């Protein structure tokens, strides 16, 4: 990480003695000032100093404040569960606006739900036109997603289950139309590298759960073999971080039966693999694709 | 000592304020807060807007990064007006607020005299004047100094929040 210049620290200090503590996580004063403003708005004064110290240590702001906005929901965030990302928020909202136009009575499952953000926002947006379920292997994620569900009073069926145990998944529901997931997708080799080498942010490595982040192809394989196929789904949206993962998923389906494409995020990065059964009511998913595979 | 004081910029400012307040025709009522021109939402046509999310440009994103800011930038295609908004942690709030700001700016361009911002500014200065009139000189001095400080602080805050250029790395 680049060293912060003494000049910058002095400038920050003259605005507020707490501001310099935000410079490690935000190398520019405007962003640091904003974070301090949010801390001061959302926490009692007695906690500002502690918050500033934690932030200096690169502890995630969302764990300090206890939440992350996701669409129009405020998602409660706690240690040991991954913080929802804006790229995820973006594709979930895009997906819902396409589904709202036409799809009715959908049965949806969100695999590897973490805080529950994807399932809860989908239910919030689609209301009675969708039945939504979600599951995660981690007890912390399971408990937090239940807490979030109750906080927003949304009717989502949440279960603690392992994607690699088909027997556990059978309990959730007998069939699903649409499978959504943001599984761990960072190969271990990249997990160890800094952002500048296409690795990950120090704050993420230090404080977010490794078990929510590290994965390569195995989760996509499980999603297809244990959910899409046995549950008779006609569509899926899987978040990912690499084009190779989208190509791997494409190869699992025969082209005559399934259409497939890629969604890019607001930064232009490959972000989701999308699939739809040709001729089904979910072929509207094609509209989400920036590129057909 | 008295003569010296009367040359200080603060009291000079007061003489100006007083004379300004005095010359205002007393019959004109201050626009009521609830009777301001409405927010000109109708000026926003989604098809005319180009929306961008600026969250630190390139880089891998997704699970690898945890960004806290969510800056929204709107370009009004017919006029080329650009506004940005990042006051909130919520992208949804920033999108709404950015549209409100854009609408106000468009109205200012189209209808400078009767726009919401023009009436707001007029109201602000009239309220200030009537307050100044009511209070005694000493009180006025304190009050104006305060207002001046507040305004300066607000300006600084605003400049910091909105003013930094978009090519600055996030
Ligand atoms: C990248 S996080 C995504 C969380 C959330 N969906 C989101 O978008 O913020 C991946 C999640 O997968 C869960 N997970 C890992 N292995 C799993 C498995 N075998 N079965 C179910 N969930 C698993 C982790 O506990 C973690 O919560």
Automatic annotation (TrEMBL), chain A:
EC number annotated for this UniProt entry: 2.1.1.297
Keyword annotations from UniProtKB, A to Z: Methyltransferase, S-adenosyl-L-methionine, Transferase
Enzyme class: transferase
Catalytic activity field: L-glutaminyl-[peptide chain release factor] + S-adenosyl-L-methionine = N(5)-methyl-L-glutaminyl-[peptide chain release factor] + S-adenosyl-L-homocysteine + H(+)
Pfam families attached to this UniProt entry: MTS
GO molecular function, one term: nucleic acid binding
Cross-referenced CDD domains: AdoMet_MTases
GO biological process, one term: methylation
Domain Methyltransferase small: 96-210
InterPro entries assigned: DNA_methylase_N6_adenine_CS, HemK-like, N5-glutamine_MTase, SAM-dependent_MTases_sf, Small_mtfrase_dom
Gene Ontology CC terms, in alphabetical order: mitochondrion
Protein name, UniProt field: peptide chain release factor N(5)-glutamine methyltransferase
Organism listed in the record: [Candida] railenensis
UniProtKB/TrEMBL annotation, chain B:
A Pfam family of this chain: RF-1
Region (Disordered): 124-170
Annotated localization: Mitochondrion
Entry keyword set: Mitochondrion, Transit peptide
Biased segments, Basic and acidic residues type: 138-160
GO CC aspect terms: mitochondrion
MF GO annotations: translation release factor activity
Top-rank taxon: Eukaryota
InterPro entries: Mito_Transl_Release_Factor (IPR052405), Pep_chain_release_fac_I (IPR000352), Pep_chain_release_fac_I_sf (IPR045853)
Coiled-coil portions: none
GO biological process, one term: mitochondrial translation
Keyword Nucleotide-binding: no
Domain (Prokaryotic-type class I peptide chain release factors): residue spans on this chain: 44-143
The keyword Mitochondrion is annotated on this UniProt entry: yes
Membership in a protein family: Belongs to the prokaryotic/mitochondrial release factor family.
The protein's name: Uncharacterized peptide chain release factor-like protein, mitochondrial
Species, as recorded: [Candida] railenensis
């Amino acid at each position: 990480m680049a060293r912060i210049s003494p000049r910058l620290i002095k400038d920050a200090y003259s605005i507020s003695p707490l501001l310099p503590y935000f410079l490690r996580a935000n190398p520019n004063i405007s962003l640091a000032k904003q974070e301090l403003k949010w801390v001061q708005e959302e926490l009692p004064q007695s906690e500002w100093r502690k918050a500033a110290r934690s932030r200096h240590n690169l502890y995630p702001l969302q764990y300090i404040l206890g939440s992350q906005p996701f669409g129009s929901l405020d998602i409660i965030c706690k240690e040991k569960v991954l913080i929802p990302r804006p790229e995820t928020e973006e594709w979930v909202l895009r997906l819902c606006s396409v589904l709202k136009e036409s799809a009715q009575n959908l049965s949806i499952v969100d695999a590897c739900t973490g805080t529950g953000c994807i399932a809860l926002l989908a239910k919030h947006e689609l209301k009675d036109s969708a039945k939504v379920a979600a599951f995660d292997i981690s007890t912390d994620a399971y408990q937090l997603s239940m807490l979030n569900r109750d906080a927003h009073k949304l009717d989502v069926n949440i279960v603690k289950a392992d994607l690699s145990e088909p027997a556990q998944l059978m309990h959730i529901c007998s069939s699903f139309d649409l499978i959504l997931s943001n599984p761990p997708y960072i190969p271990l080799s990249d997990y160890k590298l800094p952002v500048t080498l296409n690795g990950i942010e120090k704050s993420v490595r230090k404080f977010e759960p490794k078990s929510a982040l590290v994965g390569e192809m195995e989760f996509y394989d499980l999603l297809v073999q244990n959910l899409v196929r046995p549950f008779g789904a006609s569509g899926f949206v899987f978040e990912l971080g690499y084009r190779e993962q989208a190509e791997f998923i494409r190869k699992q389906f025969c082209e005559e039966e399934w259409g497939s494409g890629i969604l890019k995020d607001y930064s232009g990065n490959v972000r989701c693999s999308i699939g739809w059964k040709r001729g089904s009511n979910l072929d509207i998913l094609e509209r989400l694709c920036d590129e057909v595979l | 000592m008295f003569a010296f004081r009367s040359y200080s910029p603060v009291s000079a400012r007061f003489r100006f304020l007083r004379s300004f307040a005095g010359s205002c025709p007393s019959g004109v009522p201050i626009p009521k807060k609830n009777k301001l021109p409405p927010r000109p939402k109708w000026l926003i046509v989604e098809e005319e807007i180009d929306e961008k999310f600026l969250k630190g440009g390139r880089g891998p994103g997704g699970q690898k990064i945890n960004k806290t800011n969510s800056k929204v930038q709107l370009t009004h295609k017919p006029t080329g007006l650009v506004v940005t908004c990042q006051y909130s942690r919520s992208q949804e709030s920033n999108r709404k607020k950015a549209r409100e700001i854009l609408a106000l700016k468009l109205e200012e361009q189209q209808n400078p005299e009767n726009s919401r911002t023009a009436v707001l500014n007029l109201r602000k200065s009239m309220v200030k004047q009537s307050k100044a009139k009511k209070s005694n000189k000493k009180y006025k001095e304190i009050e104006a100094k305060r207002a001046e400080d507040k305004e300066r602080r607000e300006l600084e805050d605003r400049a910091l929040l909105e003013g930094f250029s978009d090519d600055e790395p996030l």
